[in-house]
Amino acid sequence: MHDAIKQIGERLRGLRDVLDIPAEDVAQLCDLDIDTYMRMEAGDGELSISNLQKISKKYGIALDVLLFGEEPHMSHYFLTRKGQGMSVERRKEYKYQSLASGFRGRTADPFMVTVEPKPEDHPLHANSHQGQEFNFVTEGRLELTIGKKTLVLNPGDSIYFDATQPHCMRALDNAPVKFLAIIF
After folding, report:
1. If you placed Cys at 50, which of 18, 100, 101, 129 could pair as Cys (CB 3.0 to 4.6 Å)?
2. The whole model's pTM is what?
3. Separation CA 169–CA 74 (nearest Å)
4. H helical segments located in the chain
């Protein structure tokens, strides 16, 4: 997990170097202070998919390049077999498996997300990003907070929401939860 996060940080630093972008500009884009952003580049800070997506869109680089270091090549279709999507773990509690990493020019980013349980007193960190998001729970129970509203999603439940609203999630029942997340 730590190696993958360190590699993402190296790719962020490389992107800035190639495009001659000041670190302060990227930090501001992500609504982060410069120290927090520099920890991300060093592989020591919290990486959020939403911040990587902001960087991807702003600077015209595929999200897959930032996440996995590979440029997508397929333009007609891209097949992901069960359990075979490229994955990255942001933290120990979250695993994102890309379901369309090889499709070039896609307009949505689908992920199979696994959230590991945390203690009830563990603080949740809200996140927001441009666009909209669709989540469909396949296993376990998910507590999702959007703004000030907290919802519980069970297997088979889905939600579509404005992703600019602060949102955070927690696995319930001391068991992992898996859900399909599509970010538009």
Report:
1. 129
2. 0.70
3. 32
4. 2-19, 23-29, 34-41, 49-59, 63-68
